[in-house]
Specification:
single chain, Protocatechuate 4,5-dioxygenase, Chain A, 65% helix
């Protein structure tokens, strides 16, 4: 049964329709990184590339500071942000560690323990 209740999970950001609208340009830009030409254009002039997608001041700041958590707060979808994280040589475990405040090794260990049913 569907519910409209929102769950508060520490370290996470609910990606609902409001956040999708807020992050549309950011997510569209991150999706563009599927193409090498887009990655090259971004790397050549990040500010101009952000302007091309009408990013907000807060979104541009998060990009400039390479702050994945701020991008989540600004409407970024983790699925699209993973494309940007790849430009930074980060993977999903790196992002999970950032979200939880753990080291990458601690986060990976937690995943393994959860997978084994130990947690």
């Amino acid at each position: 049964m569907a519910t409209n209740e929102k769950r508060d999970i520490p370290g996470t950001y609910l990606f609902d329709s409001k956040m999708a609208k807020k992050g549309y340009g950011l997510n569209k830009m991150c999706y563009s990184f599927n193409n090498q030409e887009a990655r090259d254009e971004f790397n050549a002039d990040p500010d101009a590339y952000c302007d091309k997608f009408n990013l907000t001041v807060a979104q541009k700041k998060a990009i400039k500071e390479k702050d994945i958590i701020a991008m989540l707060r600004e409407g970024g979808s983790i699925y699209y942000l993973a494309k940007y994280a790849g430009l930074l040589k980060l993977n999903m475990q790196d992002i999970g560690a950032l979200q939880t405040g753990m080291s990458v090794e601690e986060f990976k260990d937690m995943l393994v323990k959860n997978g084994r049913g130990e947690v």
